[in-house]
C-alpha cells in the first residue's frame, strides 16, 4: 500500500514537472517536505517500478509513426508461454499482452505494432507469423482517436 | 513544428530518464553544451507544439493499486458520437479508439478495484443501450515499451 505522502507525490508528478530551474524544490514546497526528501522518494519509486517511466510522453504521430495496428493472435493456451516472449522480442512490437478468449473471440495474445503505414504493419505481422507459426491473426487498425488522456490517480 | 538536431537530442535525453537532481535542466544543458535557459525554452516550445504531451511520471497502474482492462464494443455507426461522448465522461477511461472491426469501439479502463470496473461497465451499458461488449483484462504482460527511437 502507498502512503498518503506517496499518493500526494503521485498527484503532483502526474501533471507537468514545472519548467523552472529548480522544479523539485517547487513541488516539495507545495507538499511541505524538503527537496531532498522528494528526490529520494521519486528515486525509490523509479527503482520499485511504481514510476514506469519518468520523463516526456511524446505524441508519436508527429514523429513519423503513422499507423498503429493492434494485432490479435489465436494462440492455443499451451503455447502462450513460449510464443508471448518470442513476439515481445520483435522491436516493432511495442506492447504484448495475454488476454482471455471469449465465446466468438478466440484471440489470446495482443500485440501493438507501429509502422509508417498499414502495409508496413501487415508485412511485420506476416514476419512475426512466420517466425512463431501462429497464422490465425487479425490486424485491427485504429481509424479515429476519440479520447486520449493521461490517467489521474487518487483524484476522487 | 520542425524538430532540429538539438530538439531531438533533448527529447532523446528526457524521454525516459528525466534527471532527478536539483537542477535537471542544467544537467541536460551541460550534456549537450547548451545554456540551462535554452533547454527550458526549447522544452517549453515542444510542449506548446504538442510534441511533448506531458513531462512527468508515468505510473505502473498495478503497483499504484489500480486494476485495468481493455474493452471492445459493437456500436452501431449512427450511435458512435453519442456513445463516445458517454465514455469520455469517465476519468478512468484514458484511451478510446474507433477500429476497423465489427467490435469497433475500443477503450481502456482503470479503477481502484474489480468491483469498480464492473460497476462502471454496467453503468456504460445501461446508459448507452449497447449490449455487445468484450471485457479483456490482461492476464500476463510480455512487453510494454514506451520509448521511441528518434
Q: Characteristics of this structure?
A:
heterodimer; A: 156 residues; alpha+beta; Alpha-Beta Plaits; 2 domains; B: 150 residues; 4-stranded antiparallel beta sheet; 6 strands; 37% helix; elongated
Largest sheet data of chain A: 4 strands, antiparallel
Q: Strand share of the residues of chain B? A: 15-25%
Oligomer: heterodimer
Give the chain pair forming the largest contact, with residue counts.
A-B, 71 and 69 residues
What structural class do you assign from the helix and strand content of chain B?
A: alpha+beta
How would you sum up the major sheet of chain B? 4 strands, antiparallel
Q: How many separate helices of chain B?
A: 5
With strands numbered from the N-terminus, the spatial order across the biggest sheet of chain B is: 3-4-2-5
Q: Please trace the helix and strand order of chain B, writing H or E for each element.
A: HHHEEHEEHEE
Rg of chain A (CA only) = 20 Å
Mean pLDDT of chain B: 93
Global mean pLDDT of chain A? 92
Gap between N and C termini of chain B, in Å? Answer: 15 Å
**Number of structurally distinct domains of chain A:** 2
Main sheet of chain A: which strands, in order across?
3-4-2-5
What's the domain count of chain B?
2
CATH architecture of the largest domain in chain B: 2-Layer Sandwich
**Which range does the strand content of chain A fall in?**
25-35%
Instruction: Give the radius of gyration of chain B.
Output: 20 Å
CATH top level label of the largest domain in chain A: Alpha Beta
| Helical amount of chain A | 25-40%
Amino acid at each position: 500500500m502507498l502512503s498518503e505522502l506517496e499518493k500526494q507525490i503521485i498527484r503532483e508528478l502526474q501533471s507537468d514537472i514545472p519548467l523552472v530551474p529548480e522544479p523539485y524544490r517547487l513541488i516539495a514546497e507545495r507538499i511541505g517536505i524538503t527537496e531532498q526528501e522528494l528526490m529520494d522518494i521519486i528515486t525509490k519509486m523509479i527503482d520499485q517500478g511504481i514510476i514506469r517511466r519518468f520523463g516526456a510522453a511524446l505524441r508519436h504521430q508527429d514523429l513519423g509513426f503513422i499507423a498503429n495496428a493492434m494485432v490479435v493472435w489465436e494462440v492455443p493456451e499451451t503455447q502462450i508461454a513460449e510464443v508471448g516472449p518470442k513476439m515481445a522480442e520483435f522491436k516493432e512490437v511495442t506492447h504484448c499482452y495475454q488476454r482471455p478468449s471469449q465465446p466468438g473471440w478466440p484471440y489470446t495474445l495482443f500485440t501493438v505494432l507501429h509502422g509508417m503505414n498499414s502495409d508496413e504493419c501487415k508485412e511485420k505481422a506476416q514476419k512475426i507469423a512466420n517466425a512463431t507459426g501462429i497464422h490465425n491473426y487479425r490486424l485491427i487498425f485504429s481509424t479515429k482517436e476519440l479520447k486520449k488522456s493521461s490517467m489521474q490517480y487518487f483524484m476522487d | 513544428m520542425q524538430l532540429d538536431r538539438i530538439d531531438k537530442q533533448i527529447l532523446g535525453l528526457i524521454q525516459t530518464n528525466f534527471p532527478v537532481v536539483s537542477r535537471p535542466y542544467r544537467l541536460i544543458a551541460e550534456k549537450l553544451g547548451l545554456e540551462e535557459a535554452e533547454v527550458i525554452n526549447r522544452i517549453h516550445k515542444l510542449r506548446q507544439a504538442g510534441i511533448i504531451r506531458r513531462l512527468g511520471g508515468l505510473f505502473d497502474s498495478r503497483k499504484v493499486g489500480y486494476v485495468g482492462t481493455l474493452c471492445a464494443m459493437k456500436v452501431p455507426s449512427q450511435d458512435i458520437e453519442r456513445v463516445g461522448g458517454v465514455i469520455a465522461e469517465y476519468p478512468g477511461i484514458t484511451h478510446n479508439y474507433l477500429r476497423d472491426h465489427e467490435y469497433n469501439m475500443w477503450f481502456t479502463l482503470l479503477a481502484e478495484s474489480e468491483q469498480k470496473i464492473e460497476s462502471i461497465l454496467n453503468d456504460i451499458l445501461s446508459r448507452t443501450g449497447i449490449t455487445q461488449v468484450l471485457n479483456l483484462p490482461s492476464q500476463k504482460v510480455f512487453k510494454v515499451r514506451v520509448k521511441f527511437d528518434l
